[in-house]
Amino acid sequence: MFEYLLEQRWAVAAILSDRTVTKLADAQMLELTDENWQTLESMMPVQASLKRAATVVGGERGLGGHQDDRGVSRWAGRPANELM
Fold first, then answer.
1. How many CA atoms lie within 13 A of 24 on its CB side?
2. What is the DSSP string of the chain?
3. What pTM was estimated for this model as a whole?
4. How many whole angstroms separate alpha carbon 9 and alpha carbon 31?
5. In angstroms, rounded to a whole number, what is the distance separating the alpha carbons of residues 4 and 60?
6. How do the pLDDT tens digits run along the chain, 84 residues long?
7. What pLDDT score was predicted for residue 48?
8. 3 and 51 in contact (C-beta within 8 Å)?
9. Nearest to 53, CA basis, from 43, 64, 42
């Protein structure tokens, strides 16, 4: 998740700075500082390790999720939205 946010950093900044899209009060609340962005970058290895661990544990239990050929997320062979 951090990876995608980091990839879109400049798009996020552009939207938050565009007053025709985002109110100043909302932008101030949602804006991330350079320190926040650096923290996200430093958390990438931790997130990758957790993702691998979750995949391994899920696979061992037969709970591994994947997307089918239509892009539908599936868990244990059932569409993810049916599990809720």
1. 0
2. -HHHHHHTHHHHHHHHH-TTTS-HHHHHHHPPPHHHHHHHHHHHHHHHHHHHHHHHHHHHTT--EEE-TT--EEETTEEGGG--
3. 0.59
4. 11
5. 27
6. 788 999 999 999 999 999 999 999 999 999 999 999 999 999 999 988 888 888 887 766 655 555 555 655 555 555 444 544
7. 86
8. no
9. 64
74: which strand partners?
A: 66, 79
CA distances from 37 to 15, 34, 44, 49 (A): 16, 5, 11, 19
Q: Which residue has the tokens 């609340």?
A: 29
Could you tell me the residue ranges of all domains in the chain? Answer: 2-82
